Structure formats: C-alpha cells, structure tokens
C-alpha cells in the first residue's frame, strides 16, 4: 500500500504461492517502491523487522562480506534484497518500523489486503 503526498492510497495485493512471510514482506516493499518514481522521497513503513533491519543495519555488512551473513552463510533471499536495494538507491528512502497489530491504520489495511489475497487464492 502506497500513500501519495496528496493523501491518495494506491493498493495492490496478490498471492505469491508457497513462499515465506519474509519473501512476502520483501516483495511488498519492492512492489511499493516500483510504484514510486526514481528520485522520489519515500517513507517506507513496515511491521517487518526483517525488512527494516535489512535496509538500515544489515546491508553494508552483507555487501562487505560478499553477500554472506554474520555467520558466514549466504544471505537468505539475496535476489530480492538486491532488487530492493537497487530501488532504494534510486530514491531517497527512510525506513520506519511500526509494531504490527497495534492500530497503525495503514499497517492494519495492509494486513487486511494480505488476508484478502489469501482468501481469494484459497477459493
């Protein structure tokens, strides 16, 4: 879900198949950024510490270690992370974590959209 500076919401949802919640969170961030123009200032808000920490804490270490985590293992979901970083490099992105299920209106709406996609896929 993207909210424009004018206050309009752009919503997308879909079923990714049998991927993990981490793949879904990364894909959501990627698709959201794709909906913004290069050069835009973007506030990326997520309840996923995985996404937020990847953007704000882990990236430099992964790159320094040749896309290995602190234990020396390959970074999980590296192709998605690289796609996300390519998009953030083209924009001025601030990343902010919010607690899930804590009443944040856009986060609650994003959760409802995810649920709708799951129900539609199961039908």
From TrEMBL:
A GO molecular function for this record? metal ion binding
- The enzyme's main class, written as a single word, is hydrolase
Q: Which PANTHER family does UniProt cross-reference here?
A: RIBONUCLEASE H1
SUPFAM superfamilies named in the record: Ribonuclease H-like (SSF53098)
Please report the stretch or stretches of sequence annotated as the RNase H type-1 domain.
Answer: 1-119
Sorted keywords for this record are: Endonuclease, Hydrolase, Metal-binding, Nuclease
InterPro entries for this protein? RNase_H, RNaseH-like_sf, RNaseH_domain, RNaseH_sf
Pfam families assigned: RNase_H (PF00075)
What EC number(s) are associated with this protein in UniProt? Answer: 3.1.26.4
The UniProt catalytic activity note for this protein reads:
Endonucleolytic cleavage to 5'-phosphomonoester
Q: Which GO terms describe its biological process?
A: DNA replication, removal of RNA primer
Q: Which residues form a coiled coil?
A: none
Question: Which family is this protein grouped under?
Answer: Belongs to the RNase H family.
Q: Which organism is it from?
A: mine drainage metagenome
The opening ranks of the lineage are: unclassified sequences, metagenomes, ecological metagenomes
What is the protein name stated in its UniProt record? ribonuclease H
């Amino acid at each position: 879900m993207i909210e424009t500076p004018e206050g309009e919401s752009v919503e997308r949802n879909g079923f990714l198949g049998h991927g993990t919640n981490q793949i879904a969170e990364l894909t959501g961030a990627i698709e959201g950024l794709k909906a913004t123009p290069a050069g835009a200032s973007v506030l990326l808000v997520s309840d996923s510490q995985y996404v937020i920490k990847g953007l704000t804490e882990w990236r430099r270490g992964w790159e320094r270690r040749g896309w290995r985590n602190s234990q020396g293992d390959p970074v999980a979901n590296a192709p998605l992370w690289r796609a996300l970083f390519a998009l953030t490099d083209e924009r001025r992105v601030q990343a902010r974590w919010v607690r899930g299920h804590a009443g944040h209106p856009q986060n609650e709406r994003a959760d409802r959209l995810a649920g709708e996609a799951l129900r539609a896929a199961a039908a």
